[in-house]
User: Which sequence fits this backbone?
């Protein structure tokens, strides 16, 4: 059941659906509301859908700008103010361009006028305005991290640690005050915004086990699509040599991990494990590009299963 409501921990509206709909894309939920003539629900979902997409776009842009700044400081010994100004100028259009704003206005006007065909067309335009740059940004980030790795793979870790607070630290600032289901809702929102699933509309699989919630993407809309290709358009996997060649605790001890994907090991397991004693939101990474990506939200993180610890060099307390 759809539950679009204000969350005090996040300070904004988020979908807090029951488990039967939490993984269903907002795109599909909006299509249903339009078809059924539920105007107020459709209008509310349209605003939320744009925000959901924009959150992930802004995260990718923050990451890209931080990598560029890191490159400038490292390679040219530029001062931090110069690097910040230059990286900001390079990324300004990507960050400030009003992706989705015009289609949203058309979509809401069509909803209010009870014109479902025009609304469906505007909804698709809204989605495409984010989908195409989204996939380019993911590949761009992978290539910039690959560039850093050529002078030593440690530089990838250093770069991600430098941007950690502005992306993951801020996003999960209230994580420890959240209920397990709030953590699931925030997690799923992010991967809906990352356009996961075969339709690329943001479909996510969610199920409950006794000690944890299992969240799966087939494929993940970022690294999964980069590695596998885009099932919606038929675009093949992105051609790149941007993978690690040395095993690290922060790549699950593996080689052949795409640099983009390494941030999951770092931000969700390696770094929080060293700060908190246990992973934040562990996952089962696989080098099989056709396999789903599976994440876990533990109901009691201190009871995180033991097998999650050693692959990032952690010892279970």
Assistant:
């Amino acid at each position: 059941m759809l539950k679009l409501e204000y969350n005090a921990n996040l300070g904004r509206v988020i979908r807090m659906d029951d488990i039967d709909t939490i993984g269903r894309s907002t795109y599909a939920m909006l299509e249903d509301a339009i078809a059924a003539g539920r105007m107020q629900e459709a209008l509310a979902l349209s605003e939320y859908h744009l925000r959901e997409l924009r959150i992930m776009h802004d995260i990718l842009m923050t990451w890209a700008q931080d990598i560029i700044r890191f490159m400038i400081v490292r390679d040219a010994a530029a001062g931090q103010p110069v690097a910040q100004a230059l990286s900001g100028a390079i990324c300004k259009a990507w960050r400030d361009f009003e992706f989705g704003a015009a289609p949203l206005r058309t979509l809401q006007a069509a909803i209010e006028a009870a014109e479902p065909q025009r609304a469906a067309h505007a909804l698709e335009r809204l989605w495409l305005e984010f989908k195409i740059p989204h996939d380019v940004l993911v590949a761009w980030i992978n290539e910039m991290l690959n560039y850093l790795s050529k002078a030593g793979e440690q530089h990838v870790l250093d770069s991600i640690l430098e941007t950690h607070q502005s992306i993951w630290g801020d996003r999960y600032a209230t994580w420890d005050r959240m209920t397990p289901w709030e953590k699931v809702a925030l997690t799923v929102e992010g991967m809906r915004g990352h356009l996961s699933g075969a339709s690329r509309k943001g479909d996510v699989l969610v199920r409950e086990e006794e000690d944890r919630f299992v969240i799966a993407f087939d494929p993940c809309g970022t690294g999964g699509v980069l590695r596998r290709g885009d099932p919606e358009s038929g675009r093949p996997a992105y051609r790149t040599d941007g993978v690690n060649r040395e095993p690290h605790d922060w790549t699950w001890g593996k080689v052949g991990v795409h640099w983009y994907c390494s941030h999951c090991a770092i931000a969700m397991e390696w770094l929080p494990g060293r700060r908190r004693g246990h992973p934040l939101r562990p996952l089962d990474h696989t080098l099989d590009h056709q396999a789903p990506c599976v994440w876990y939200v533990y109901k009691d993180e201190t009871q995180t299963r033991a097998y999650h610890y050693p692959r990032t060099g952690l010892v279970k307390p």
